[in-house]
C-alpha cells in the first residue's frame, strides 16, 4: 500500500426519486473513495441507498430519478493515457459504449434471473469480448473457455453451449462473474452477489471474487448487509444509513474500534457462536427514517439510545479519528460527554480480535 | 427436438380423430335427418333414401365406414344442398378463398401488430405509444363486422378504391377489404401483447446485465429483447388464429365471399352431414396444424423447451 492510486471519487452525491407520495431522498450527500486494487464495502440495511449509489456509478438510471448534485470522478486507462471523467455528466452514449463492460463491470444480486434464458452461456460471455476487445468469434470462444476455467467451472467447452437453465445458481453466479471480468475492467461492482445463494456456495463465491481481485488487481465495490461478508472481503468499509455514510475506515477500524452508535448496533446484532446462549440477540430498536420527510439532525437519533440533544437539532459532521477512520456522530465532539460502546459489544470485539490474531490477521 | 416434434405431431393426429368422432356423434343427435325438409317424400321413400346413403346402419358402423372412406380421400356426397355432388368438389373449391383471406389476415395482423407493439415499447410515453394503445383498444373491442361495414362504406362505397363485394374475376383486389377487416383483432391483440411483453423484458434483470456489458442499444434489442419477447407473443398467436376462423364466418357474409363460412352455416341448418363433417374436419386440421406449428416454433425459440427431455 505504498502508493495508492485513486480510481473513483464520489463527492456530495445526492439522488432523489419522484414517487406517488413525493420526492424520496435516497442518497443525501455521499462521499466515497475507491483506490486501485482495493475492496471497498458498503454496508447498511435495506433502503439505505447502497444500490442507488452503485447504480449511479454504473450508469443505470430510472425515469423517475433526479440527480440533485455531486460528482463521480472515475479514472481509467483509455488506451491513450489515463483519463478522468465525471460519470454524472458524460453522455449516456459514452457511458454505454466506452465505459460499461470495458472499464466498469457489475455482478448482480440474483444469478437465477440475471442471465438471458434464450442465449447460450458462451454467446453471453463472448458478446462483450467481441465488442470491446475486438476479438474474432474463435478468439473469443477460446478466452471464454479460459474464463470459465478461471471461475471454477468444469468442462468449460461443453458449458459454453449450455443455456442458463441447465446450470445451478452457484454456477450461474460464476458465469456472471466471468462475464463481468471478461474485458479486464478497472472497477468491479458487486451488488450483494451472494445474497441469493445458499450459505455453502456463498463462501466459495466470495473466495472466488477475492482471488480474482488479487490476481487482476481490480478495484471492487462490494455491497452487502452481511457484516460477516464485509469482514472477509473488504479493505475499507463504509457504513451507510439513510442515504449517508456515517462511518468509514479500514475494516479493522470499523470492526475493532467502531465509533458510531449505529455501527455499534450493527455489530451487536450480528449473531455469533461464541456468545452466551442465554442472551437474546440484540436488535436495533425502531425503523429507518422515512426519506420522504425532511431529516433534521442525525438521521439515526430517534433510534439511538446515546443520542444527545444536538443530535435532534443539527447534523453531525464527519469527525476524523485518524487518517483513515471517520465517523459522523456528535459523540466524537470534544465537548460531548464521554460515551463508551456497550460492554457486551466490547467483549465481542475482544473475542473477534483474538480470533483474528489466531488466523494470522486474515 | 426430434422427439418433441414427433410427439406433438402424434398428439395432433389423435386429436383430429377424437374431434371427428365427437362431431359425428353430435350430428347424429341433431333433430331431424337430411331428408326432413322434403315434405313430399313418403316414409317409405325416406327409408329408401336412408338405405341408399347407408344412413340406416348403426351410428358406430357408419362412423367407421366414413373414416375408412375418408382415409381414401372420399368425403361422401351432399344430401340436400347440391344433391349427390361430391363433397370434395363442393368444399375444396371454396377452401381456396377462405384460406387466402385467413392467411393474408393472419400474416398482415401479426406483422403490423408486432411493428406497432415494438415501436410503442421503444418509444414509451410518446405519441406512438398512445396511438398504439388507441388502435389496440378499438381493435379488440369492436367486432369484425363493424370494421367490415366501415371499410365497405368508406373505401368501397364512398371512395370506390376497392370492390364492395367479392369478385372472382379479380381475387386479389377484392380480398383486400375482407383481409383488413379480419386482421384488425389480430393487429390489436398482437400489438398490445408485444408492447407489454417487451417492456417487461426490457426491465428484466438479464437486460440489466446485458446492458452492463456495454452493448449498443440496437444490438441489445435485436439479440436479447426481441427473442425473449417473441416467446410470449407466440403463445397468444394460437387463440388469435381461432379468432380468424370464427371471424371469417362473419366477414365472408359481409363481403359475399363464396368461402367455407357461408356454406358451413347452410349445411348445419339443413343437416347435410357430410358437408358439416368435411368443413369441421378442415377447420380442426387447420387449427391443430397451427397449434403444432406454434409448439414447434416455441421449441426452436425457447431452449428450455428444446432441451427439456433429451
Q: What this model shows, in words?
A:
The complex is a heterodimer of chains A (362) and B (310). Chain A is built from 11 helices and 12 strands. With 362 residues, chain A is α/β, with parallel strands linked by helices. Chain A has 2 domains: 6-234, P-loop containing nucleotide triphosphate hydrolases (Rossmann fold); 249-358, no CATH class. Chain A has an 8-stranded mixed sheet, sandwiched between helices. In chain A, helix 7 links the parallel strand 7 and strand 8 (219-224). In chain A, helix 3 crosses helix 4, helix 4 (137-150) crosses helix 6 (169-181) and helix 6 (169-181) packs parallel to helix 7 (199-216). The two termini of chain A are 16 Å apart. The mean pLDDT of chain A is 90. Chain B is an all-alpha fold. Chain B has a domain at 95-306: MetI-like fold (Orthogonal Bundle). Chain B has helices at 2-29, 43-53, 59-71, 87-122, 127-141, 144-158, 171-174, 176-202, 205-212, 217-254, 260-269, 273-301, 303-306. The longest helix of chain B is centred in the C-terminal third of the chain and has 38 residues, at 217-254. Chain B is flat. Chain B starts with a helix and ends with a helix. The chains are: A alpha/beta (362), B mainly alpha (310). The A-B interface holds A 58, 60, 96-102, 105-106, 108, 110, 113-120, 124, 127-128, 131-132, 163, 165-166, 176, 179-180 and B 204-217, 219, 223-224, 227-228, 231, 301-304, 307.
